[in-house]
Amino acid sequence: MGTTISFKRPDGQDVNGYLAEPPGGKNAPGIVVIQEWWGLNDQICGVADRLAAQGYRALVPDLYRGKVGLAANEAEHLMNALDFGDAASQDIAGAVAHLKDSGSAKVGVTGFCMGGALTLLSSVFVSNMDAGVAWYGYPPLEFIDASKIKAPLMAHFAIEDVPFPIAKVDDLEKKLSAAKVVYEFHRYAAKHAFANEEADTKGLPFLKYDAALADQAWKRTMAFFAKHLQ
Predict the structure, then answer these.
(1) pLDDT of residue 178
(2) Could you read off the pLDDT of 162-176 as tens digits, one per residue?
(3) CA dihedral defined by 202, 92, 224, 46, rounded to 10 degrees?
(4) What is the DSSP letter of 95?
(5) Half-sphere exposure of 43 (CA within 13 A, CB side)
(6) Which region, left, alpha or beta, applies to residue 103 given φ > 0 means left and ψ of -120 to 50 means alpha?
(7) Which of 68, 9, 59 is nearest to 36 (CA)?
(8) With contact defined as beta carbons under 8 Å apart, do 61 and 17 qualify?
């Protein structure tokens, strides 16, 4: 189980977050975990706990400042009110810096849905992140300046995704290839949020958990982070 901590953004503001530490201690590599549009809820804290059990220091910044969306309309309202550029360049950058300053030599970023989009944005804005794994999400592609991306990237996309149509992923790949970014994209015959074990409880037809595909994506993710962070 993790604990709530406070850390500094580059601009000096304080942000709270959920930090799960591995048994191995403070010098383990770190991973910043970015929430779905629901907010910092038990499910995303469980992702951090899972990464800690695999030997990583996992920090989930509280992008919504204590608010959580229980229904889709609440989550959408919170997401639409979020300044994505500020979240990436300040909250996530601060979380990466906190893990590095407190003992992690290398720090990756991973995020789901909205957090997947923010993972890709962070690869542009956060120059000292060491690897990124995005899950079924991407920002408007005009915000991706691929020439600034130095960290290797992995992403998991759902072919039947409604919120993030798969066709745009081809365009994203062209941008990354042109800039010679090291990346590895995987496409799954699945719906949005296929790795969220609570997806089927949300009552939304475009969400569907797929345990087998989630397991496959997680194995790929852990091998990628082991290669680039260990």
Answers:
(1) 98
(2) 999 999 999 999 999
(3) -40
(4) H
(5) 19
(6) left
(7) 68
(8) yes
Strands (E), the chain: 3-8, 14-20, 30-34, 57-61, 107-112, 131-135, 153-158, 183-188
β-sheet bridge partners, residue 61: 17
| Eight-state DSSP code of residue 91 | I
Cα–Cα separations (whole angstroms), residue 137 to 22, 44, 117: 27, 16, 5
What are the Cα distances from residue 10, in Å, to 4, 90, 117, 151?
A: 20, 6, 21, 20
Q: What is the pLDDT of residues 125-151, one digit of tens each?
A: 999 999 999 999 999 999 999 999 999
Q: What is the pLDDT of residues 70-127, one digit of tens each?
A: 999 999 999 999 999 999 999 999 999 999 999 999 999 999 999 999 999 999 999 9
Helix/strand/coil for 39: strand
Angle at CA 112, nearest 5°, toward 38 and 206?
A: 70
- Over its C-alpha atoms, the chain yields an Rg (Å, rounded) of 16
